[in-house]
Specification:
By secondary structure, this protein is α+β, with helices and mostly antiparallel strands. The protein is built from 15 helices and seven strands. The longest helix is centred in the middle third of the chain and has 80 residues. The chain is elongated. The structure holds adenosine-5'-diphosphate (ADP). The site of adenosine-5'-diphosphate (ADP) has 22 residues, from helix 13 and helix 14. One of its GO terms (molecular function) is phosphorelay sensor kinase activity. It comes from Parvibaculum lavamentivorans (strain DS-1 / DSM 13023 / NCIMB 13966).
């Protein structure tokens, strides 16, 4: 049970939820816009923008904040999901985020006034570490995800691992920066002067692009989640950035092409953060709506319960009182000087009948509250209805009722308690057949139609050509023990409504055209099929 709940939780997370078609379109649209921006920049790319160093601290701060927030949100997801892959990705973001600080501080001409001068090669070396470290973490994320898929999720204290990761990455960044700054003379000569790169630098973009493309290919192979989709876009954006920084701008720092590349970098650093935040807000909204609906249903059920228990007490009281009266009468017939066997038998027969009636009432109530009522499984509503209809074929033949089934193909799945919903559909079908028994002037036809309702629901309509339900009675018929049938119990529709509402759906009755009644009910689609729902609903 705990595992089912855990699995359900997973389908809500952006690390496991599949991307919708709209999200894929947005991702493609974003990439296309960036490529267009790259093409527009090309003719002016090498034009230097003098004195723009002053913008670098602001740029670096934005990257730092975005990447640290992304890392923090990923860590929060890790705490829920316990996937090592997510922790490695969070480490990647923390690593590049922290490294941006020494990168900006060592950038020639930016913090000189404060007395920072870290040597010619330091900035380039830190940039190399960021360029290579991040895609390596993404690749590790993809490979570790395979392990997660094989069910090897971490167990044990997550706090220790999170603290270990944060401490490890911070210490690594600190030590690496310290070594780079101290050993500037020993570093490879990537920079000719403060603005221009040496031919040695050409290896850096080549290696980075290879790693980015490897990451994209690995992610493409899996394409399991929303996060995978946006990580592909992040890597593609980083590719565009490096092309702008190293090739289009000819490696000239602070040129138009170089700044365009930096903007790409900023977009890339913000992307996963924006997606994480928007998905979190969306999930929060969905959760708030679900809670409000649950509370409404609970309140409604409570007052229904009060009415129901009063009605049950009243209904059971009747046959029990009648049984006592008949038992007394039977005894009196037996106590006579010449016992009246015939009258006694009649009294006993009435007692048996009342006993059955009381038993039926109790059975009906028990079926509503039995323990299995919480077990819900993903179900095809079309298959469920087809099964119920099959069971009623003989009854329909006997009552000369024609059947018209209109099932929408590819209906989204609903997660329901099969027994309850089957029982609800069976009640509606039986009522429809009953309603047409006295009809002789027109064809007796039962129509069952399935389709999509509003707000991620499936809609089922059960229509008959009987006498119909007048608007005045439309509310009454759902009340317990309301019946117009001589042998009816009046609990069927109350049960149907209670079953449908406990699944988060609605049941109501309308007038059928040109005659009869149509009972309609909705059931929410399983949350994981929302994308399919959106596609089908057009
Ligand atoms: P029962 O079938 O035992 O009477 P229900 O709760 O299922 O209990 O139905 C309550 C009443 O609603 C029925 O007695 C009938 O008067 C009315 N009703 C239900 N379904 C239909 C229908 N399809 N057409 C007309 N009246 C209906």
């Amino acid at each position: 049970m705990a595992e089912i709940a855990h699995e359900k939780e997973q389908t809500f997370l952006i690390t496991t939820a599949r991307p919708t078609r709209r999200q894929v379109q947005l991702a493609v649209w974003m990439l296309a816009s960036l490529v267009v921006a790259l093409l527009i920049t090309m003719p002016f790319a090498r034009t230097p923008l003098e004195n723009t160093e002053i913008f670098l601290p602001a740029y670096a701060s934005a990257i730092l904040v975005n990447e640290l927030f992304t890392a923090a949100l990923l860590v929060a997801i890790y705490a829920v999901q316990r996937s090592a892959a997510i922790l490695v990705l969070a480490a990647g973001y923390l690593f590049t985020g922290l490294l941006v600080v020494p990168w900006a501080m060592s950038f020639p001409g930016v913090f000189n006034a404060l007395g920072f001068d870290m040597g010619l090669q330091s900035t380039a070396m830190i940039a190399v570490m960021r360029r290579i470290g991040f895609p390596l973490c993404v690749i590790a994320y993809v490979l570790l995800k395979d392990e997660d898929a094989a069910g090897k999720l971490e167990t044990g204290p997550v706090q220790m691992r999170i603290v270990g990761m944060v401490f490890g990455v911070t210490a690594f960044v600190g030590v690496a920066t310290w070594l780079i700054v101290l050993g500037d003379d020993l570093l490879p000569g990537f920079m000719e002067d403060t603005r221009n790169v040496t031919p040695l630098w050409s290896y850096v973009p080549a290696v980075s692009v290879t790693l980015y493309v490897t990451g994209i290919v690995l992610l493409w192979r899996q394409r399991r989640s929303v996060l995978d989709l946006w990580l592909m876009v992040v890597l593609a954006t980083l590719c565009i950035e490096i092309v702008l920084l190293s090739y289009v701008s000819g490696g000239i720092r602070l040129s138009i092409g170089w700044w365009a590349g930096r903007i790409c970098g900023l977009i890339s650093a913000s992307m996963v953060l924006v997606v994480l935040l928007s998905e979190t807000a969306m999930l929060y909204g969905r959760l708030a709506r679900a809670l409000a609906q649950e509370r409404r249903i609970r309140d409604a059920r409570l007052s229904e319960m009060e009415a129901l228990s009063a009605s049950i007490a009243h209904e059971v009281n009747q046959p029990v009182a009648s049984m006592a009266t008949n038992a007394n009468a039977g005894l009196r017939w037996l106590e006579r000087e010449y016992p009246e066997a015939h009258e006694t038998k009649a009294a006993l027969t009435r007692i048996v009948r009342d006993g059955h009636r009381a038993g039926d009432i109790i059975r009906g109530v028990r079926s509503m509250f039995n323990r299995d009522s919480q077990v819900r499984v993903p179900t095809s509503i079309n298959d469920l209805i087809a099964e119920v209809v099959e069971r009623h074929r003989a009854e329909m033949r006997q009552s000369h009722v024609a059947l018209d089934l209109q099932f929408k193909a590819d209906m989204p799945v609903v997660t329901v308690n099969r027994i309850q919903i089957e029982q609800a559909v069976a009640n509606l079908v039986t009522n429809a057949i009953d309603a047409m028994r006295s009809i002789s002037e027109r064809e007796r036809r039962l129509s069952i139609v399935t389709g999509l309702g509003d707000e991620f629901t499936v809609l089922v309509s059960v229509a008959d050509r009987g006498a119909g339900v007048t608007p005045a009675h439309a509310g009454e018929i759902f009340k317990p023990f309301y019946t117009t049938k001589p042998d009816g119990m009046g609990m069927g529709l109350m049960f149907c409504r209670s079953a449908v509402e406990s699944h988060g759906g609605n049941l109501w009755v309308e007038q059928n055209k040109p005659c009869g009644a149509v009972f309609r009910f909705t059931l929410p689609c399983s949350i994981e099929v929302a994308p399919q729902y959106l596609r089908d609903a057009g």
